[in-house]
Design brief:
Chain A: One of its GO terms (molecular function) is tubulin-glutamic acid ligase activity. The complex is a heterodimer of chains A (417) and B (530). Chain A is of the alpha+beta class. Chain A is built from 13 helices and 16 strands. In chain A, β14 and β15 form a beta hairpin. Chain A is globular. Classes of the chains: A alpha+beta (417), B mainly alpha (530).
Chain lengths: 417, 530
């Protein structure tokens, strides 16, 4: 493919950026590249936007048309992945489709609704729509705890635990009739609560991993290696008295930050690297490797589940914050996916990490010549990946398969040359 | 003549054997071992008519022989110094002034402890009041919630203070301007190794053998896909053999993560047995029974260090337990105070409100070890190796008794802090003369830059994984000399940046972040022959 002239030619157009996220990690990264800040109304090449601004750009009313030299950091309908109810819906549909095709991945496990390989989200129902299905499931194991989350909210807002059906009924009465879908817009998801989380030092944690998508069809996904664990500040305790103590149950930094025990030097964050060291040392290498392979597995399949419904606009890329809980049997559970993972730095290390994150994202989504260009094939050279590793590039996989079947396949390293 | 030598060897062997038989009886696992052997003798495996041979055979086949061998190995190690060879050479010169310095230092710490008690109006020791005991017992697994006011407590001293003590040591036979602080330790006549001698000691590193901690995917000579796989395979065989000396040898080339905890326990003889579990419980009950002022200092130290450390904060609770139990452990007292590096000063505390009789008096603290700022860091890395607090405790304790206590006591021991600082200086002066002169020109004592690393064995300064590789080498070669060597290597690695700065603050800034360092390749580079 021919290189575009304007990039390497004498036309020294400055790359422009705009952002409505007022975070120094973002602005510094752009300025470091010599890019010039402009307002969203001006001609920009790179827009780091909040989801709302992105939606406006893509909405029919605004009629904004992006040209080939513009990139933006969200997909128009990212909520297919990041809204709790839609994620569940898409995964359920994905499993059914695979099953219909007779795909071995969709093999059933023990019990109804269980899958052997695709069982990576806790059993979940959307309320009020699936209320009856929920009750049916609830009756099967009335002793288990369930967690209620509003679909559209984030950072732990509006979340509570339920261990009795009566409590749910009481809530529904109080929350001005949410079971009549006509009266309320807000829907909830209710999921089986992972009540045997892996504890370290007696404390519960979840993983925050960053996943960069540069295209959904073909799927191109990268995993940031510097993920971290977010710890609760209080010892894990499943007793009824503690059911309402969110410092025990929720790992969100935005929740924990208000706890008395919050430490601002480390912010309750432990690197995934250290988690791995601890697990390999205390639990063994094989089980640890399996855990991390399973984490990759659940990320890839959550993405494949939404890929067909995503508006795969070539101006878009997106970095998602994956929240994963590991249970005591070292099985990972996908809890939710965030479209705008926090870029607020709570500690010095956090700042360094997020700075690197943004830096690495830019070098992956922008072609090697440094100018945004949607016509580029989106195959960054290995040195551009920084702390990201390639999870999956369906295009490369397809190419290799083609080369292999036509006998031209030589070595896997050839694709980098 | 030859016969004579043979004769004298026989005599000394005889003597050693007698001492061994006597002392083995006071070792912790003796009772256990004895019972096991008695059981074996009573079994059908041992025949009366051929008692000796059948017993030996039976000992071998059920693994008791290995147990006995390991016990002897640990006994030999607990005797005297780490490397007895150079002992003679240090005795040529009079180093009693170091011993005096240690005695003075111990007195100073004790004085400071007493004045803390007086200022805060708290006793050194008392019976723990009932309410407090109950609270402590209830919160034993989550002592971070044991809420006591420690705002008035300060660490008794910090590494910086200890360094000042070391700098003020005077060799009486060495003429110098009075009142002038020493610039270096060169005047202290302890023999330390040269780089050539270190290459001889760390021969596996010097020869460029493939080591874990460089690149686990490095190809291997045998039928394994990579080095890591080979090391795991051999390591598992080593563990199965249960021979402590073999495990020690194995560590020289680095431990695979999943085997490290068990390998360390084997080398140190700290594998937990039934009697150890009971003893650990006893220590806990001692903590509950007595309230000593050291407890506050310990809790304060965990709060100041591990609690704020992003590598270790998750282990805060287990560290409180570990350090509190350690303070009550009188088995620590004897090996530390009878070592020739110790001043042998012990405080006796009379329980508050009790008559000063023998039964109301206790050695204070029972372990004889008074914590300082950062003391907890000697224990923190073990949190990554063991889930079980008891297993963690015994390996930490064994490590402390073999190595760490030498890092906060003044002594002439070739593994002591003074010798290690001296080794650091000699290496820097010989192999990085420009850097040495630069330090002189900007009036910064080189030891001052690295002392906190050396005194903590780099704990808290390196990421856990790198630290564990470093400590593998300490255990494998049974020597702390790798620590000053690493300190020099780091300065050498950052030389260009160091040469450009000219004050303490900027020097510290250049060396503040060691998170990107890979310890094993750095050390190997330094030890490889040019």
């Amino acid at each position: 493919m021919a290189r575009r002239v304007s990039a390497s030619g004498t036309d020294k157009t400055k790359v422009t950026f705009c952002t409505d996220v007022d975070k120094s990690v973002i602005v510094h990264n752009f300025e470091k590249r010599g890019w010039v800040q402009v307002s969203p109304e001006d001609d920009w090449n790179f827009y780091w936007a909040v989801t709302q601004s992105c939606r406006n750009i893509f909405s029919v009313e605004t009629g904004y048309r992006m040209d080939d030299k513009q990139l933006i950091n969200h997909f128009p309908n990212h909520y297919e992945l990041t809204r709790k109810d839609l994620l569940v819906k898409n995964i359920k549909r994905y499993r059914k489709e695979l099953e219909r095709e007779g795909n071995p991945l969709a093999e059933r496990g023990d019990g109804p609704g269980k899958y052997l390989y695709l069982d990576f989200i806790p059993v979940t129902f959307v309320l009020p729509a699936d209320y009856n299905m929920f009750v049916e499931e609830y009756r099967k194991s009335p002793q288990s705890t369930w967690i209620m989350k509003p679909c559209g909210k984030s950072q732990g807002a509006g979340i509570f635990l339920i261990n009795k059906l009566s409590k749910l009924k009481k809530w529904s009465r109080e929350a001005k009739n949410p079971f009549n879908p006509n009266l309320t817009k807000e829907s909830y998801v209710i999921s089986r609560y992972i009540d045997n989380p892996l504890l370290i030092g007696g404390k519960k944690f979840d993983l925050r991993l960053y996943v960069l998508i540069t295209s959904f069809r073909p799927l191109k996904a990268y995993l940031f290696k510097l993920g971290f664990c977010r710890f609760c500040t209080v010892k894990y305790d499943t007793s009824i008295q503690e059911l309402d103590n969110m410092y025990v149950h929720l790992t969100n930094v935005s929740v924990q930050k208000h706890g008395e025990e919050y430490n601002s030097k480390h912010g309750g964050k432990l690197s995934v690297h250290n988690l791995r060291l601890y697990l390999e040392s205390t639990r063994g290498k094989a089980v640890t490797e399996k855990l991390f392979a399973n984490i990759t597995w659940c990320i890839i399949h959550s993405l494949k589940a939404v890929a067909p419904v995503m508006a795969n606009d070539r101006h878009c890329f997106e970095c998602y914050g994956y929240d994963i809980i590991i249970d005591n049997d070292l099985k990972p559970w996908l809890i939710e996916v965030n479209a705008s993972p926090s870029l607020t730095s709570t500690t010095v290390n956090d700042r360094i990490l997020k700075y690197k994150l943004i830096d690495n994202i830019i070098s992956i989504v922008v072609p090697p010549d440094g100018v945004p260009d949607v016509k580029w094939n989106k195959c960054p050279p290995p040195e551009a990946l920084g702390n990201f590793e390639l999870l999956l590039d369906e295009e490369l996989v397809a190419q290799e398969e083609k080369e292999y079947s036509s006998g031209k396949y030589r070595s896997s390293s050839s694709k980098w040359k | 003549m030859a016969e004579n030598m043979g004769e004298s060897r026989k005599v000394s062997l005889q003597k050693s054997a007698e001492r061994l038989t006597e002392e083995i009886q006071s070792m912790a696992n003796y009772k256990n071992l004895y019972t096991e052997i008695q059981k074996l003798v009573a079994s059908t495996a041992v025949k009366r008519e051929d008692f000796k041979n059948t017993l030996l055979e039976a000992l071998k086949s059920n693994g008791l022989e290995t147990e006995i061998r390991n016990t002897v190995f640990h006994w030999v190690r607990s005797q005297g110094s780490l490397s007895a060879v150079s002992e003679a050479s240090t005795e040529e010169v009079d180093l009693t002034y170091l011993k005096k310095a240690q005695i003075q230092w111990e007195r100073r710490i004790q004085k400071s402890l007493n004045s803390t008690c007086n200022e805060l109006n708290v006793p050194l020791a008392r019976i723990r009041p009932n309410a407090d005991r109950e609270e402590l017992a209830e919160k034993w697994n989550e002592l971070s919630t044991y809420d006591i006011d420690l705002s008035q407590y300060r660490p008794l001293y910090a590494p910086k203070d200890f360094l000042d003590v070391l700098f003020s040591i005077r060799n009486p036979s060495f003429k110098k301007q009075p009142n002038e602080l020493n610039w270096e330790f060169g005047h202290i006549q302890i023999r330390v190794k040269t780089l050539t001698q270190l290459r001889h000691l760390y021969v596996e590193l010097a020869k460029g053998m493939s080591l874990l901690g460089v690149n686990p995917d490095m190809s291997s000579s045998e039928n394994f896909t990579n080095l890591e796989e080979e090391r795991i395979y051999i390591g598992e065989k080593v563990l199965k053999s249960n021979h402590a000396p073999i495990a020690q040898e194995f560590l020289k080339r680095g431990a695979p993560r999943a085997l490290r905890g068990r390998l360390w326990s084997l080398v140190l003889g700290s594998t937990v047995k039934q009697n150890d579990l009971e003893y650990y419980e006893e220590l806990k009950s001692m903590v509950l029974q007595y309230d000593i002022v050291i407890d506050k200092l310990i809790i304060k130290d965990v709060q100041l260090t591990a609690r704020n450390d992003d590598q270790y904060f998750v282990f805060e609770d287990v560290l409180y337990k570990t350090m509190l139990c350690f303070s009550r452990d009188s088995e620590v007292l004897a090996p530390v105070t009878t070592d020739r590096s110790a001043g042998g000063q012990v405080i006796h505390a009379v329980l508050q409100g009790k008559p000063a009789t023998l039964e109301n008096t206790l050695v204070f603290p029972p372990s004889g070890v008074i914590p300082f700022h950062g003391f907890t860091m000697y224990a923190t890395p073990f949190c990554y190796l063991y889930d079980d607090p008891c297993a963690m405790y015994y390996t930490f304790r064994a490590f402390y008794l073999r190595y760490w206590f030498r890092l906060h006591t003044v002594s002439s021991h070739e593994q002591g802090i003074v010798a290690l600082c001296l080794l650091f200086e000699r290496l820097l002066q010989c192999h990085e003369p420009l850097l040495w002169i630069h330090c002189r020109n900007i009036h910064i004592q080189p030891v001052k830059i690295v002392f906190k690393w050396i005194m903590r064995g780099f704990s808290g300064h390196l990421p856990p994984e790198q630290l564990l590789y470093l400590w593998d080498l300490i255990l494998g070669y049974d020597s702390l000399e790798i620590i000053p060597l690493l300190a020099v290597t780091i300065l050498s690695f950052r030389k260009e940046n160091l040469m450009q700065v000219n004050n303490q603050q900027s020097v510290e800034a250049v060396l503040a972040d060691l998170s990107s360092l890979k310890v094993v390749p750095l050390l190997q580079l330094a030890l490889l022959r040019e």
